[in-house]
Amino acid sequence: MQRRDFLSSMALGASLLVPVGRSAWAASAGGGAGGTNLTRQKLIVVMLRGAVDGMNVVAPVGDANYRRLRPTIGLEAPGADGAALDLDGYFGLHPALAPLMPLWRQKRLAFVHASGSPDPSRSHFDAQIYMETATPGRKSTPDGWMNRLVAALPGEAAASRALSIGPLMPRILSGAAPAINLPNGAAGTRVDVLDRPAVGAAFDQLYAAHARFGRAYSEGRVAHREVVQAAMSREMRLADNGAPLPNGFPDDAARLAGLMRSDARMQLAFIALGGWDTHANQGAATGQLANRLAPVGLGLATLAQRLGPLFEHTTIVVMSEFGRTARQNGNGGTDHGHGNAMWLLGGRVAGGKVYGDWQGVGDDALNEGRDLPVTTDFRSVLAQVAEKHLRLPDRQLATLFPDMPGQALPFQLL
Questions:
Q1: pLDDT for 29-54, tens place per residue?
Q2: In what helix (H) or strand (E) does residue 262 lie, and over which residues does it extend?
Q3: Local structure of 184: helix, strand or coil
Q4: Distance from CA of residue 348 to its chain's centroid?
Q5: Which of these, 46, 177, 178, 274, could form a disulfide with 318 (CB 3.0-4.6 Å)?
Q6: Category of 181 on φ-ψ map: left (φ > 0), alpha (ψ -120 to 50) or beta
Q7: Other Cβ atoms closer than 10 A to 206
């Protein structure tokens, strides 16, 4: 596969074309920036904590090296049962994300492959900080880039302008500008009172052998225990940084869409989902990764539908702290990697394409001989969304993304 330069023609916005070089992504949207339109343009960021495997989300099934590197967890090329869903003849989408295919066909969904943070850290904690502060390699940054974005946007910085859904206010929205945090609606993965040994034993005595309720009680306890154990494994909890599994995301997505439609002042939103640290038993078309991806695909499709007309003025960015190794490991999983795929959805996204400086997955193209390189800095993607979609001038972009290399700038509109 020859090096492919997808980013030379990507634009977000009607009748706008922004050629910005081989490793950048550009966005633009119509609508005024003043008066009643100050909060018209919306941005939603979904963080997949734990490092989702971008090479199985958007799989290079057209490259023979892909299945060589992943003999048991690699996706089949389109046409087979449970195979990847064809995107462009070379890349295929994971079949668990089938609810997103209508958006792909409508050219409202795109991906930027081999993207991510230039910092080489393979620490979940550090890499998440760098993506949330947009200052790779620097842990001391006191605020998140979305909080700085609140302060940079025109108009009054009302508390309802920026919203996080999750157990705690995330680093990305922490800072001087006001923001609000709401808990997740789904609580199925939280430890409950029955997980206390004494209480659980007492209820087991009452119901386990009950003629009418015993079977339902026992099955419910087993199902709950499996979910909690999966969510509460020490390593995965650390990687998730408190984010819940994506099982409840469709409900949270519908809730978020309703909030944004009912409050015109709400412009920015953030939600984090955990469960992506798939070191073992990752699976291919089915299995652990597929089970995580299915509610994400359904949730994003629900969000797009429930936003209604607002979706035309909304950009949704899905990102993760880093990717995973190109080669599967001995446990049928993948380890911490580098480059990944960013997802971009919205009414003005020039979608139906996989963008990025893609160099293939041959041994000589891999970073350190083990994973995808980062050929597109994640900040260049975010910066162009901020400039072309949210209409921020260059001087504010410099504050929002300090020390960002000039990979995607300046812009030239044709």
A1: 333 333 346 678 999 999 999 999 99
A2: helix 249-262
A3: coil
A4: 18
A5: 46
A6: beta
A7: 12
